[in-house]
Amino acid sequence: MSTWMVTGSTGQLGSELVALLEAEGERVVPPGRRVLDLSDERAVRDLVARVKPSVVVNCAAWTAVDDAEAQEERAHQVNAAGPRALALACREAGARLVHLSTDYVFSGTATTPYPEDAPTAPLNAYGRTKLSGERAVLDLLPDSGYIVRTAWLYGRSGANFVKTMARLAAERETVQVVDDQHGQPTSAADLARHLLLLARSEAPPGVYHGTNAGQATWHGLAREVFTLLGADPDRVIPVATSAFPRPAPRPAYGVLGHARWAAAGLPAPRDWRAALHAAWPGLKG
Fold first, then answer.
1. Among all residues, which ones are annotated catalytic?
2. Domain chopping of the chain, boundaries
């Protein structure tokens, strides 16, 4: 039995991972925000030294993309300084660190899936702070640091796009949804299983892409949700991103490639539709 420390343990991904680890018989330490301030380097070091984890999985993040535009320094404390503190603590403790990142480290100008080693060029403050966190982990833990980029995450815990669409299907005759942003709807349960496999394996450290396979637009995902509900998917009306102006620019294309999973001898993520259908009973309310 190994000891795992999971930060951000009450979020969509963290809660799925904690439940999975406990079901697997692992010892899990899930410090919440009140127990651990990731921006406090000494507190992070002391907790990791006390817990003595084999693996730390950092699911904690500032994910309010628009708020980060006006509060970049605060977002930096969580998304960059926090991972750096964890990496330093893991280096001292001899623990592996699996740090969750995002497709927002890319510009979104590609037309084919981004490989793990593609050049980064974030468009907004959120992406910049997440990229800084990635670099800190890779610099400090070249032999035991893992970056797992994910996107369009949904799960049983908390609010997410899938649940929102299910609710709006019952409340509105039609729903307008953006149809010019391309990404990969990703099941938190699927990602948790891949994180477990990765951390238990002898896979080389570095960057992995933790999204479900295939691609969709937000409009396409919404239509799939309506279909699962037995509702008419034509009630979902496609619109351009410009119809919903936001403070932070969004990458138009955030589809990620998964070549490193196969290279490491690990199973590749399944298609997003299969994952959504499997997760659906726990999402529809």
1. 126
2. 3-160+186-213+254-270
